[in-house]
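Fig. S4 source data, part A: sequence.
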Amino acid sequence: MTAVSLGLPEVPARPAAGRRVSRQIQVGPVPVGGGAPVSVQSMTTTRTSDIGATLQQIAELTASGCQIVRVA
């Protein structure tokens, strides 16, 4: 695809902010922080009193690649 010039001046690219240094922790078997790869995490939306639905949702999240599931 060819870029179209609209006659506007070029905006200089802003430098990306550097990442701050953090220490690595373990959430179960998943490393978080300290240069670890980004982990996929989510939270359940079911009522925690409905144990069956909560466990079903956890199973669906892990099957879709979620590494950390929060329940509250």
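Fig. S4 source data, part B ends here. The first strand starts at residue 25 and ends at 27.
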